[in-house]
Amino acid sequence: MATAVQAASNVLVSTSWVEEHLKDAKVRVVEVDVDTKAYSEGHIPGAIGWDWGKQLCDTVRRDIIPKSKFEQLMGQAGISNETTVILYGDNNNWFAAWALWQLKIYGHPDVRLMDGGRKKWLAESRELTQEAPKATPAAYRAKEPDFSIRAFLPQVQDASSKKGADLVDVRSPQEFTGEILAPPGLPETCQRGGHVPGAKNIPWAKACNEDGTFKSVEELKALYGGAGISGGKPVIAYCRIGERSSHTWFVLKYLLGFKDVRNYDGSWTEWGNLVAAPVEKP
Amino acid sequence: MRVKTEEYREKKEQLSGWPVKIVSYKLGNLYHVSIHNEEPGAWIAKGEGASLAEADGKARKEAAELLAKVKKSPPPTGCTSVPGF
Prior knowledge:
The complex is a heterodimer of chains A (282) and B (85). Chain A has 282 residues and is of the alpha/beta class. Chain A has twelve helices and ten strands. Chain A has helices at 4-7, 15-20, 38-41, 52-55, 67-76, 90-105, 117-123, 153-162, 173-177, 217-226, 244-255, 267-271, and strands spanning 12-13, 27-32, 48-50, 84-88, 111-114, 127-129, 166-169, 200-201, 235-238, 261-264. Chain A has a five-stranded parallel β-sheet. Chain A has a four-stranded parallel β-sheet with strand order 8-7-9-10, with helices on both faces. In chain A, 51% of the residues are buried. Chains A and B meet through helix 6, helix 7, strand 6 and helix 9 of A and strand 1, strand 2, strand 3, strand 4 and helix 1 of B. Strand 6 (127-129) of chain A pairs antiparallel with strand 1 of chain B, so a sheet runs across the interface.
């Protein structure tokens, strides 16, 4: 049974691969965590840290990072258009996947996730440092944003009412049913609980092994295929703010090779706050 | 200075009525404990300390306070959809 890394080495690398390439000048490792203090506790030697809440979004309106700021961010991290970017983070790469999705939107040619993320690196007792790396600024030019991998509200409304695309809600069953409005311990950020009518609930974590790595391609096919998500139709994944669904988007797009997969980053914090939007509670 | 994690452990427990995963390890001279909800697996509280007990105590206290605030809705009574847009 092929591991996910073996099946998709152009977008996924192992922790040992990263360790072997720590001094490779063509490779830049970047940590993106849910817990923005984790990087300063200790990170992979040479890794840059990005704060998703300040550096990977538009800080004025709700949106992804603007193109000009993205170019600055990449350049300041010493990343050129030719650099291989390796992303990793906590929570099995939630926000690392979010970052990867944005790098793909802006057309970065070679960006990959470290399978298992920060958790696996720590569990394997690999080296960490608190030293911030010195990056030599590089020139970076982003492409025009490719929104074929992003879903906006009208597309989700269409998918829900016309069934032209499969909707995958990757939140927990308790969020999906509306029993809770946010994951336990996190702030509630929506007015209504439930899910987009017609969505199927396949929690993101089902795609992972206990050590944080992705399941094998065969297991992933069985997981999503078993729920009727086979790639025959376009797929839109969503969660609460779009980071968990980036993880699922990565699985469907790159590990299963579905042609048309979009991440709805508006997610439940948009839909669940929308006046008069239909809400399904099974 | 480069360091490696020591004593890395994960265990599952119930805290304030919620299933959680507790991750602990030592890094340099400090113990780190983080508490994650089981669904969806998000980090919710952390503690640091010179001993595992100190770090664990801090993380549990913060997590218990946050988890105790989670409101559950009554069981769903059916679809609340408004037809069309």
